[in-house]
Amino acid sequence: MTSIDATDRAILRELTIDGRLSNVELASRVGLTPAPCLRRVRRLEESGVIAGYRARLDPVASGREFCVYVLVQITMTSREVVEQFEEKVASYEEVTEMRRVYGEIDYVIRVDVADSNAFERFQTEKMYPLPGVHRMVSHPTMKAVKSND
């Protein structure tokens, strides 16, 4: 496990905000010269602390402004049912996050689509036919107060 100090945390915070910062700009923001800053970033990448870089998409511009959290309870008749359910749902383009959770429900699934009609199609055509689904409750969101997307 990699030891992370205050400078590493500052680097991670800056890269979380803007992963496209140049090394020179990043070094300036965290109070380092470029060479040691680059060594730290590479160490964080090689150790897996930084798992990758990605683009953040604007929900409106990308046509996915309707965000719904779907709570799913499945009938766990076998390990195969669970694995098939997870594999199938995770393959859907509309599903941007899927978590198996403890408690009364089994999964919290984030679905990002264009609008309520698109969500209805997704639910009717993709979720309802899945074997093992016992119950689904959908929660359309009003706004993102905080998001790491």
What would a concise description of this structure say?
This protein has 5 helices and 4 strands, in the order H-H-H-E-H-E-E-H-E.
Describe the protein's architecture and organization.
- The chain is an alpha+beta fold and 149 residues long.
- The chain folds into two domains: 6-46, Orthogonal Bundle (Arc Repressor Mutant, subunit A); 66-140, 2-Layer Sandwich (Alpha-Beta Plaits), CATH 3.30.70.920.
- 39% of the residues lie in helices and 20% in strands.
- It has five helices and four strands.
- It has helices at 6-17, 23-30, 34-46, 79-91, 116-127, and strands at 66-74, 95-100, 107-113, 133-140.
- A four-stranded antiparallel β-sheet has the order 2-3-1-4.
- Helix 2 packs across helix 3.
- The radius of gyration is 20 Å and the shape is elongated.
- The relative contact order is 0.15.
- Roughly how much helix do the residues carry, as a percent range? 25-40%
Q: With helices defined by DSSP (H or I, 4 residues minimum), what is the helix count? A: 5
Sheet-strand content, in percent, reads 15-25%
Radius of gyration: 20 Å
Number of domains: 2
Structural class: alpha+beta
Report the biggest beta sheet as strand number plus sense, adding barrel if it closes. Answer: 4 strands, antiparallel
Query: Strand order across the biggest sheet?
Result: 2-3-1-4
Number of beta strands:
4
Instruction: Give the full name of the CATH homologous superfamily of the largest domain.
Output: Lrp/AsnC effector binding domain/regulation of amino acid metabolism (RAM) domain
Question: Mean pLDDT, nearest integer?
Answer: 94
SSE order: HHHEHEEHE
As for the CATH topology of the largest domain, it is Alpha-Beta Plaits
CATH architecture of the largest domain: 2-Layer Sandwich
State the oligomer: single chain
Which residues sit in consecutive blocks of at least 5 with pLDDT less than 50?
none
Shape: elongated
How far apart the termini lie comes to 26 Å
CATH top-level class of the largest domain: Alpha Beta
